Every structure is written in structure tokens, then in C-alpha cells.
């Protein structure tokens, strides 16, 4: 089961991974001639890098929009758990792509896409589909982050 909110670059950026500032850090092996101070400095630099990467994400995307997406994704996972009667780990592979739904021409096309996705669900899905369409109304599609040219 997965909820897709954008391109793979957006997922990597939102997860804080991938393509940082091009810095390389060498870490001395534990127990060998390295000092505790060097380890602390290395850890502090890594934390600072993560914060910087998170800052890039919120600049490329509106923080409110990201928060709305996260809340929506959590709701979708909860609802799918109820529909399929299982925990997230046991759920069949169901992919609901929010951006794909937002690309649809109208509500009917969105509902049809959701019905096709949930075809193997044995419980009624009409209420879930109706509520999801209501929740995505007014949302914007997230475009992939712009890569900086060197």
C-alpha cells in the first residue's frame, strides 16, 4: 500500500534524502585514534546538513500544502485500513496517487480512477471515495522540485 504525492524527486526531497551539497565526510573507525570531540563535530555537521535539506524542501514547496498532504495521506491510510480490515503492513498493494487524481478532468473521472484502484476491496467504498474527493477539492498538484544547474 502506498500513497503517492508527487514524482520520485519530490519523495526523495520530502524524505530528506538524496543530492545534498556535495560534501564528503570521512569518519575515523571507532576505538582507533579518533577523539570524542571529532565524533561530536561530525554528528553536529550531519545534523546541520539535515536541517539545511529540510529547509530546501519547505522553500520549494509551501509548508501548508505539505502539511495538508501529510494529513490527507494519514487519513487515507487509516481509511484503507478500515476498508480492508487490516493493519498497514498487511494491506494489499493499493496505490492512490493524489496528483494523478488532481490531473483528472472532473469529479466523475476521479471517482472512476478510485473505483478502479479499490476494485478488490470487499467492503463498500462509496463513502470513502466521496470523502476523499471532498478533501482533495481545492488542493494543488505538487510539481517536482527544480534542480539547480551547475
Can you describe what's shown?
- This protein is mostly helical and 150 residues long.
- The chain has a domain at 63-138.
- It has helices spanning 8-14, 36-60, 63-84, 98-103, 107-117, 126-136, and strands at 2-4, 95-97.
- The protein has a two-stranded parallel ribbon with strand order 1-2.
- Helix 5 (107-117) crosses helix 6 (126-136).
- The relative contact order is 0.17.
- The model is unreliable at 7-20 (pLDDT under 50).
- It holds the Pfam family PP1_inhibitor.
- Belongs to the PP1 inhibitor family.
- GO terms for molecular function: protein serine/threonine phosphatase inhibitor activity.
Q: Would you spell out the secondary-structure blueprint of this structure?
A:
Layout: E1 2-4, H1 8-14, H2 36-60, H3 63-84, E2 95-97, H4 98-103, H5 107-117, H6 126-136
Parallel strand pairs: 1-2
Helix pairs in contact: 5-6
Straight-line N-to-C gap: 37 Å
Structural class, by secondary structure, is: mainly alpha
Number of helices in the DSSP assignment: 6
Strand order of the largest sheet: 1-2
Helix fraction?
40-55%
Uncertain runs are: 7-20
The H/E string reads: EHHHEHHH
Write down the overall geometry: elongated
Q: What's the rounded overall pLDDT mean?
A: 74
| Largest β-sheet summary | 2 strands, parallel
Proportion of strand residues: under 5%
Gyration radius from CA atoms, angstroms: 20 Å
Number of strands: 2
GO molecular function, one term: protein serine/threonine phosphatase inhibitor activity
Keywords: Acetylation, Phosphoprotein, Protein phosphatase inhibitor
GO cellular component, one term: cytoplasm
Protein name: PP14C phosphatase
